[in-house]
Amino acid sequence: MARRKYTEEQIHSILKESEAGGQTGELCRKYGISDQTLYNWKAKYGGMELSDLKKLRQLEEENAKLKRIVADQQLDILGYKTILEKKF
Q1: Rounded to whole angstroms, how far apart are CA atoms 18 and 46?
Q2: Tens of pLDDT along 4-59?
Q3: Would you tell me how many other CB atoms lie within 10 Å of the CB of residue 6?
Q4: What local confidence, expressed as pLDDT, does residue 87 receive?
Q5: What is the DSSP letter of 32?
Q6: C-alpha distances out from residue 30 to 14, 18, 50, 51, Å
Q7: Cα angle 57, 73, 64; round to 5
Q8: Where are the domains of the chain?
């Protein structure tokens, strides 16, 4: 099954419908998501405003970039260590 990527606006609107008293099963069928996805969104994004969701997404993207940079540096360091060990 193809995986969909929902925007912050879509997630926010789905959660607002859920908070307004929408039935979980009906919402899941309407948007093509599983119950577990809706519960995960509630746990992760519940009580947040749209601006908070956008900031969170930006921070997650920045964090992923920084993790890649650190991983690349670690590989470089490991390569330098193996070269130095071979010389001695």
Answers
A1: 10
A2: 688 888 888 999 998 888 888 898 999 999 999 999 999 988 888 889 888 998 99
A3: 14
A4: 67
A5: T
A6: 10, 12, 21, 25
A7: 10
A8: 1-48, 50-88
